[in-house]
Design brief:
With 224 residues, this protein is of the alpha+beta class. The chain contains eight helices and twelve strands. It is 42% helix and 24% strand.
Length: 224
């Protein structure tokens, strides 16, 4: 199994040199999951880490009341399960395949880092970026209304996974409205109302598991 040529910029695998990728591949085992499959489970104590080579997943957690909170969407090149693999603590979230995915399973991730000091520093930088992103999202929850948070998530999806199309940007990501609600910290009804508002303004068009954004600049301004 070889890494996809369309790695998401900034993700773990895209930061490695060809030699480091070769060493990582040699230390790993390829594996595939079907759409909807659970890749990792919250609370699990298994110690392997995963680097996605194709496909996208959601990282989520559940509240005591059973509500799903979507923490992140990850794509090709992402490193998953690294915190548990290093600390030995239970996994802090569940990872679910949003589409068929492939990845490299590393059973001794700390051992790989011990032999690759530069990669360990890159991982530290990546963790810092995740913390900044988490801080930014906490600010959004307190400062933005639901429509602003939905617009922010749509802008993020467009910038990361969007495909140019006639007059706009198409995002074909299999996220339901319930999952989008869990990602924005709002109810499904509030998200439906926000999407309707953005449609009425001509900024987006929605379909089954897809969104077409016709005015990304205006959507960015609404997100702010």
């Amino acid at each position: 199994m070889t890494p996809s040529p369309s790695l998401e910029p900034g993700e773990f695998l895209s930061r490695l040199t060809p030699d480091e990728i070769a060493d990582l591949t040699a230390a790993a085992r390829g594996r595939r999951w079907r759409r909807g499959a659970t890749v990792m489970s919250e609370g699990d104590t298994s110690g392997w880490a995963l680097v996605l080579t194709s496909g996208r997943v959601k990282v989520s957690s559940h509240t005591a009341g059973g509500t799903e909170v979507v923490l992140a969407i990850r794509g090709p090149g992402a490193l998953l399960g690294d915190m548990s693999a290093i600390s030995g603590e239970p996994r802090s979230g569940t990872i679910t395949a949003l589409e068929p995915v492939e990845g490299l399973v590393i059973h001794d991730f700390p051992g790989f880092l011990n032999g690759h000091g530069r990669v360990a520093v890159l991982l530290l930088q990546l963790v810092m970026e995740r913390l900044r992103d988490a801080d930014r999202k906490r600010v959004e929850y307190g400062a933005f209304d639901t429509t602003g948070r939905v617009a922010t998530r749509l802008v993020e999806l467009a910038e990361r996974f969007g495909e140019p199309t006639d007059g706009g940007v198409k995002v074909a990501l299999p996220l339901s409205q319930d999952e989008l609600a869990g990602w924005t910290g709002a109810s499904r009804e509030a998200v439906s109302k926000a999407l309707r508002s953005l449609r009425d303004r001509g900024l987006i068009e929605t379909g089954r598991r897809r969104v077409t954004i016709y005015d990304l600049d205006s959507l960015r301004r609404r997100a702010r």
